[in-house]
Each structure stands twice: as structure tokens, then as C-alpha cells.
Amino acid sequence: PEPGSLIRDLFETRPPSRRHYDGIPLRKLVMDTLKREAAAFGHQFQHSDDRDKIEFVTELNKEVLFEDLSSKVNSAELDHMFRYNRKEAEKHRDGLWSRCMGFPGKLLRTVFHDPGIWLKGNKKKILGRYYKASFKGTASLGWFAGAFGNTEEWVQAGRLMARCWLHITKAGGYIQPFGSLITNKKGYAQLLETLPKPGAGKELWLLFRAGY
If you placed Cys at 147, which of 33, 119, 153, 190 could pair as Cys (CB 3.0 to 4.6 Å)? Predict the structure, then answer.
């Protein structure tokens, strides 16, 4: 598909948002546009405003967080990527600043430097509630499925994602991908059991929340 009305300026205003959303579902017109874009790429786009599905996804996302934290490899990788204060963020300009995550830097640093203390007891409950509360106001979920087995297919999926992200931005909306629910094998299996099955030969490769 040609770029059409999607202009370069949108790239500068299309950051994801981890802030609270306002509880209003993404407009049907936007969802219909994403369906057409996905079909043009040979992929499938589905969505839901169902509160039970949203609760399931946010709760599962919380559980996957703790499973990932229990892995020393995952914790070390994330710790390497995060910047915990403005000074680190401005120096490196390459990672995830804690401010963008909506978490205090000192808290986030302890989560990845010493994850063991957050994996049991009251601290686990407190962190779980804090993390899940960050998804307040979520009223829409969207997900893509399609060919996703080699480099060429990954690039095509990336083009589709970029175009759909710009359509959402143009309509005044924001997204936040649930990346861990795709990469975590246990979480991914539970998603496949709960969400509508993708069409034949299609693989679920992106799930996100969307809204305003």
C-alpha cells in the first residue's frame, strides 16, 4: 500500500503512552481502518472492548511480569536497557527511561537490581497492584495475526504496524503494546486459549491496548 494521507509529521507525535487512558474505547472508524490496512497486507486485525477480556489481559500481563523477573537473564537484560534518572537518560539517549514507564526510578532500579525481594509476600502484592493500576482507563484491545515466520514477513508486519500506529495517532489515539505476552511462552499460550482464534495460517504477533 502507498503512504497516501499518512504524513511524516505524524512520526513525531506518535509515541506510545503508558499513562492512564480516559476509559473511552477507540472509535469504530479507526478500528475499521486498521482492519482494511491489515487485509491489504494479508493479515488480520481483531479488537475488543469487552471488560472481561481487558481484565484478563491486564491480569495476565501482571503475572507474566513476575515470571520474567524470576529469570536472571531477563532481569539482567532489562536492567541493562533501563535508564533510572534524567541524567542517565540524557547521557545514553538509547534506552527506556523510568519516567516513560510511569514508575519512580528508585523503585524500578530495585525491581531489576534485586528482583528476589519483589517475588513474594506483601512486596509482590504491592508491586502487582501498582503495576496493574498503570493500565487504568483501558477500554480497547487490538491484535494482529498473519504470516510471521521469516525476515521478509517480519518486515512486512513491521510496515503494517507502523501504518496502523500512524492511523491511530492521526485520530488522536495512543497505544501500548503488551510485548511480554507475545514473547513469554506461558502467557502466549494462555492468550491463544482466550482470544478468538486467528485465521488459518496466521500467527498472533502483536497485542496492544489503545485509547485516548
Answer: 153
DSSP-assigned letters across all residues of the chain:
---TT--GGGGGG-----SPP-SPPPPHHHHHHHHHHHHHTT-EEEEE--HHHHHHHHHHHHHHHHHHHT-HHHHHHHHHHEE-SHHHHHHH-SSEEHHHHTS-HHHHHHHHHSGGGGSSHHHHHHHHHHHHHTTTT--EEEEEEE--SSHHHHHHHHHHHHHHHHHHHHTT-EEEE-THHHHSHHHHHHHHHHSPPPPTT-EEEEEEEEE-
Cα separation, 157 vs 144, in Å, equals: 9
- The DSSP element (H or E) to which 85 belongs, if any, is none
Residue 42 zone, left/alpha/beta (φ > 0; ψ -120 to 50; rest): left
pLDDT higher than 70, residue 5: no
pTM, two decimals, is 0.87
Note the pLDDT tens digit of each residue in 125-135: 999 999 999 99
